[in-house]
Amino acid sequence: MKKAYFLSVLIWCLLVLAACGKTDEEPHYYEIRVESGQLEEAEKDQFLMGRQYYQGEPVSILAEPSADQGAGCIDVYVRPMGGDKKLLLRGVSENYRSGGWFLDEKGRCFIRGATGITRLDADGKLLYHSKTEGMVRDICCLEGGRIILMTGKDSILSFWELEPDTGQIARIDKATMQFGKGGYAYIGAGGENLMLLDGDGFWRIDLKKGTKEPALTFTGTAYTLAEGTPTDFRIDGSKAEILWDEGRLERLEWVDITGKKEIITVRGTVRGWLKRQAALFNQSNDIYYVVIEEPGEGVSGSDFRAETGLKLASGKGADIICANAVADVPGLIEKGVFADLAPLMEASGIRQEEYSQVAFDAWREDEKIYGFTPGMEIQDYVLDKEILNGREVLTIENLVDFMLEFEGDRVFMARAGGDEIMEYFMKGSEDLWGMVDWESGSCDFSGELFAQMLLAAKRYAADERYQYPAIVSMRYCSGFYLLDNEMKRNQVHLGVFFDDGHYAFTGSGVGDAMGINAGAEHVEGAWEFLAFLMGEEAQSLIDYRDHAFPVNRAAFESLIQYELEECKATTEIIHDGVVYTIPANKRHGQEFTEEQAEEFRQLFAETKSIPYRTKPLRDIIKEETAYYFDGAKSMEDVIAVIENKIQLYLDEHKTGSM
């Protein structure tokens, strides 16, 4: 059985022709063409113990109950892709039935595990078990017979050479490095060279020097490794193959398409959904191709944002900018860096009422829309009723008063310091509860509310009182359907206090806003891609892997309806002779009901974005109040510094209403 499909994704890479002495070559763009095949699945009485390249072809290593050796024994087979199984070992103890089998080029059998590496002899008997420092994460056999082990511990990868006959293991001292992108890594053979695969692509490892250099890279592309575990891989020039644990064989080929399509660049650290949609867009669009500029290996987030700022300040930069790629969104909007999306939406027939309010509110200024948020990572808070003493929480003032009146020993949230409590108090208000006047460009933090907030935050800080129970708990949305922390009887909804009430709010990740660089070379193409992301089809593909809701109303409702229909299905189980009918589909062990669907419809309607405009001011408050909570400064001194710094910020950005 073989199923093939083709998928096009784009890779950005700067070629440096060192041999010619050139260092400033123009970037080349490569399309990764992907074709997939499938190894046969294990049959009913078979157990899959490994998949790898063996003697030049992809194979499955399978175990079956031994036909003639009795109970407790297995026979081990090798089955090549599209071929018949061949007996490898007969009468092996069932104790060696595991998923960590590996064959070297001579057919010798190794089993990697949590404590080391095991080798069986030609009769399936134990030859040795050699212990390693840390779990053996992967094993490969280089051309010539060298066997390399890779262990991982505390984010550090170490490499070892195994002497196959004796089991002696020698650490390759210089070959130690950090886990790659995604927190995972796999090794394979590239002839006599060791190769490594991680989220950034394929690397060539120099075991003597302890260095790695890119061979074929995914960095800057719409391609992303699929879910699952690669069990082996190989590369040949501009081609690569990845063998996955579920039996899928992925063949990749890098093809230069420089000059054949107009390139749309998206700058930011993005998740799988956006990359998957970029791949689909690239596949279907004949004019534009999307590439993703992410931080390279070893580049910190702050350096990445600083580089973005420099490019934008010079009138250059990517076509689409994600929130996590910049440090000062308010300042960039004020300087006209981002294009207003409202006219583009109107021309394209995209209506705001067809979306959640968070879709366009993250970077909004009155009627001007500077950003689009493609997904809602809903977060919420609940409050212990004991604090209320029978009353209701209606305003931020009430909450602060109730906290100060309560006489018990409690903290606000587990591990939340005073500065984090102040961030909670302030983050939902557009004018910091009247303490900032944007129109006049003035501020006043001398009022009673701010002082009361400081007192409450200091009293409920968990810095040295972490052992006390918390009055507030976080609720996250797990996937599309259920919140992972249902409200208990002694809790009430709290949310975040906004100027018009208290509501759930959207987090980051898929929920990051993105805007179009007004000075971009391809504004029209950038908008075409954003409009593609807004569409019902793309929005419907936001799923549990993204821990988010779609912001498109139709896509959201269709997913809710799908889940309701799925949960109508039932299955029967028999226990102690009694037949029970139970729902066939559950999320987190619970049915999905119409009542829960209605709760999520309400969340869709009410969830808000945290105001971007106050972020620089809240950062000042968070930084300066830490001195008060540490006892380094008095409340009066801290308030004076905060007011002075925020006034300076307002003076520098005084343009009336931004």
Strand composition percent: 25-35%
Shape: globular
The residue-averaged pLDDT reads: 86
Model regions low in confidence, pLDDT < 50 over at least 5 residues: 1-24
Structural class: alpha+beta
Secondary-structure map with pairings?
Elements lengths: L5 E8 L14 E11 L8 E8 L2 E9 L7 E8 L5 E8 L7 E3 L5 E4 L3 E5 L5 E6 L3 E7 L5 E7 L2 E7 L6 E10 L7 E5 L2 E6 L2 E6 L4 E7 L12 E7 L2 E6 L3 E9 L5 E6 L4 H13 L3 E6 L7 H13 L6 E3 L6 H6 L7 H7 L9 H4 L2 E2 L2 E2 L5 E2 L1 E7 L11 H10 L12 H9 L9 E2 L4 E2 L4 H12 L12 E7 L3 E2 L7 E3 L2 E3 L2 E3 L1 E2 L7 E3 L6 H12 L1 H5 L8 E2 L2 H14 L3 E6 L2 E6 L10 H13 L8 H15 L5 H18 L6
Parallel strand pairs: 22-23, 22-24
Antiparallel strand pairs: 1-2, 2-21, 3-4, 4-5, 5-6, 7-8, 8-9, 9-10, 11-12, 12-13, 13-14, 15-16, 16-17, 17-18, 19-20, 20-21, 24-37, 25-26, 27-38, 28-31, 28-33, 28-36, 29-30, 31-32, 34-35, 39-40
Helix pairs in contact: 6-8, 7-8, 7-13, 11-12, 13-14
Keywords:
five-stranded antiparallel sheet, 40 strands, 658 residues, alpha+beta, globular, disordered N terminus, Neuraminidase
